[in-house]
Amino acid sequence: MQMIEVKLEQKANTKELLIYVTNKHKTDYFMDQMLLFKDGKYSLDCLMIYDAEGNKLYRRRTARLFASKFPEDYITLKPEQTYSTSIKLDDFFNINSNYIDVQYDASNSYPGIGMDKITSETLRMSF
């Protein structure tokens, strides 16, 4: 079992992706806020998006990144705590098909322990 569970939902029939991140571990978990779309920013590439033809969609522009500092750039998730966030995909991607498949796929640099791989099930979003 992963320490972190990620569930994706589509907001109505919009291009807004809702993300729910839950700590399934028995201790606090520190997650880099760049992986949580804090303030609506899409900093780190953690979404795999494919159009109706199976072509991978790439974001329109890249972000200038700075190394995250612990603890100020991390969000603490208590055991069983869920953090909810969202992102408007059409702010970052050119979406021209009637549906896309989206998966959350990230590596969180966990202070003092190393890297955790965090993935979600694939969500089909229809428009």
How would you characterize the overall build of this protein?
By secondary structure, the protein is mainly beta. The chain has a single domain, classed as Sandwich (Immunoglobulin-like). 0% of the residues lie in helices and 45% in strands. The chain has no helices and nine strands. The chain has strands at residues 4-10, 16-23, 29-32, 47-51, 74-77, 82-88, 99-110, 114-119, 123-126. Strands 4, 7, 8 and 9 form a four-stranded antiparallel β-sheet that branches. A three-stranded antiparallel β-sheet has the order 1-2-6, with no helix packed on it. The chain has a two-stranded antiparallel sheet with strand order 3-5. A hairpin with a 3-residue loop joins strand 7 and strand 8 (114-119). The protein starts with a strand and ends with a strand. The mean pLDDT is 92.
Give me some keywords for this one.
127 residues; mainly beta; three-stranded antiparallel β-sheet; four-stranded antiparallel β-sheet; 45% strand; Immunoglobulin-like; globular
Structural class: mainly beta
Can you write the helix and strand succession as a string?
EEEEEEEEE
Under CATH at level 1, the class stands as Mainly Beta
User: What is the count of helical runs?
Assistant: 0
CATH architecture: Sandwich
Please state the average pLDDT score: 92
CATH topology category name:
Immunoglobulin-like
Specify the helix fraction band: under 10%
Task: Write a compact overview of the structure shown.
The protein is mainly β and 127 residues long. Helices cover 0% and strands 45% of the residues.
